[in-house]
């Protein structure tokens, strides 16, 4: 186990990892992280002092939880730990052990995103890093609008699904300081229904009167 609790006092990032003793020998007491579990009873391993999700992930991979699952001594009753890093074989093993959440990016899972939303968010990050417009995953025929028209310092760049401009894909808002240096860039990406999916805001800084960007801070929401 971790030498010190990785969570703030009295709080935990993840809420539960509950196992149940189903051993064929009903008199057998199962111990995990040195805590006993009587036959037919459950224990939330994340409620054990000093045990964090990293301990449970490691034990699931090659530790005592893995061994007891394979021996059919326990089953997993409930879990909301992020287990996305497990490979396909491990994922199947965990699913057979009773885990339904935390194994993939779904709207019903830990991350609150569907696969399509996660893909679009990744697209947003690439777009926000200057790739230039909609790519794989979007229909062809996208239309870009730059405002104000013919202004060397545009404040709005919008990618629409088509020149009809009925639905946005992504828009970019630019704010300048008095010296026409970009101080803020905000990207917004929209889902297939035109609803705002995610926002990325970059705040830029400069050294003195230099026109060259010194650093930036990115906020994703």
* CATH top level class name of the largest domain: Mainly Beta
Estimate the strand proportion. 25-35%
Q: Predict the CATH topology of the largest domain.
A: Lipocalin
User: Which structural class fits the helix and strand makeup?
Assistant: alpha+beta
Distance between the termini: 34 Å
**Roughly how many Å is the radius of gyration?**
25 Å
Number of strands: 11
The shape, in one word, is elongated
- Count of discrete structural domains: 2
Average pLDDT level: 77
The number of distinct helices, counting runs of at least 4 residues, comes to 4
Q: What series of H and E elements makes up the topology?
A: EEEEHHEHHEEEEEE
Q: How many strands, which pairing sense, and closed or not: the largest β-sheet?
A: 6 strands, antiparallel
The helical percent reads: 10-25%
Low-confidence residue ranges? 2-14, 105-112
Strand order of the largest sheet: 6-7-8-9-10-11
- CATH architecture designation of the largest domain: Beta Barrel
Commentary on this structure:
This protein has helices spanning 53-62, 64-70, 88-96, 115-128; strands spanning 17-21, 30-32, 35-37, 42-44, 74-79, 143-147, 156-160, 168-176, 182-190, 196-206, 213-220. The protein is of the alpha+beta class and 221 residues long. The protein has two domains: 17-96, no CATH class; 115-220, Lipocalin. A six-stranded antiparallel beta sheet has the order 6-7-8-9-10-11, with helices on one face.
């Amino acid at each position: 186990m971790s030498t010190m609790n990785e969570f703030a006092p009295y709080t935990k990032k993840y809420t539960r990892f509950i196992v149940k003793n189903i051993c064929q020998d009903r008199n057998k007491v199962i111990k995990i992280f040195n805590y006993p579990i009587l036959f037919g009873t459950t224990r939330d391993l994340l409620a054990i002092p000093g045990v964090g999700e990293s301990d449970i992930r490691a034990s699931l991979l090659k530790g005592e939880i893995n061994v007891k699952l394979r021996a059919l001594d326990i089953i997993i009753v409930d879990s909301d730990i992020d287990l996305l890093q497990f490979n396909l074989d491990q994922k199947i093993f965990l699913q057979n052990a009773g885990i339904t959440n935390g194994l993939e990016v779904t709207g019903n899972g830990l991350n609150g995103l569907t696969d399509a939303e996660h893909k679009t968010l990744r697209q947003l990050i690439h777009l926000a890093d200057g790739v230039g417009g909609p790519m794989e995953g979007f229909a062809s025929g996208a239309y870009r609008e730059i405002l104000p028209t013919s202004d060397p310092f545009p404040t709005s760049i919008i990618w629409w699904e088509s020149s009809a401009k009925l639905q946005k894909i992504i828009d970019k808002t630019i704010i300048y300081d008095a010296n026409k240096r970009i101080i803020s860039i905000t990207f917004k990406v929209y889902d297939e229904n035109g609803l705002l999916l995610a926002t990325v805001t970059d705040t830029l800084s400069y050294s003195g009167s230099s026109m060259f960007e010194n650093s930036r801070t990115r906020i994703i929401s």
